[in-house]
Amino acid sequence: KEYTLMKSTILGVQYNMGPGKLSHKIHLDNGIEISFQEAEKMQDKLFNKYPEMHAERARRIDYAWKTGTAWSDVGAPIPLYLMPASYYPAPEEYVDYDGTVKVTLPWEIKEVNNRAVNYPTQQFAGYVTGCALLSLQETLAARVGGWGEYLSRVYDSTKTDACGLQTIPIAEVHDEIVTD
């Protein structure tokens, strides 16, 4: 139970969840009921043990509000919705007279903060998974004698056992490899 709660807390921090949302999510995902105060204590425990997590979260949010982007660990800017129009083409009805996007509602501010914290982590996970997919395809191609033979087996629906396996990778979605 403790492992599940701490894992959920770490993931919640990466999604910029507050204690209320975290306690709700833990209940939905794991069937464990914890109070707002218990979720808050778990987050505090995590931040006390790893203060750099809290500092990194604050740094990402500050950077987003200064630049209109999140900056990933691989050095690529990620445009954030609901930020200044010069950084992101917002729908006309959301753009104020001075060219900035109207971001005044609490949920809009929270949404920008959540994306600033989460997008870099998600982008990096996508890169890692993409590298794993390429490595997997390279291994499968070597198993059957090269890329040409691998691709002919992938695209020929009559060859049900494409590479000595009952499944083949067909796509990468966020941090998962989809197979068929």
3D structure, described in words:
The protein is mainly α and 180 residues long. 58% of the residues lie in helices and 8% in strands. The chain contains six helices and four strands. The protein has helices at residues 2-14, 19-30, 36-49, 51-67, 106-144, 147-155, and strands at 69-71, 77-79, 169-173, 176-179. It has a two-stranded antiparallel sheet with strand order 1-2. A hairpin with a 2-residue loop joins β3 (169-173) and β4 (176-179). α1 (2-14) packs across α3 (36-49), α3 (36-49) crosses α4 and α4 (51-67) packs across α5 (106-144). The longest helix is centred in the last third of the chain and has 39 residues, at 106-144. The chain is elongated, with a radius of gyration of 22 Å. The two termini are 34 Å apart. The model is unreliable at 84-90 (pLDDT under 50).
The overall pLDDT average reads: 79
- Compute the number of helices: 6
Low-confidence stretches: 84-90
Biggest sheet character = 2 strands, antiparallel
* Strand order, sheet with most strands: 1-2
User: What is the H/E order?
Assistant: HHHHEEHHEE
Strand fraction band?
A: 5-15%
Percent range for helical residues? Answer: 55-70%
Tell me the overall shape: elongated
N- to C-terminal distance: 34 Å
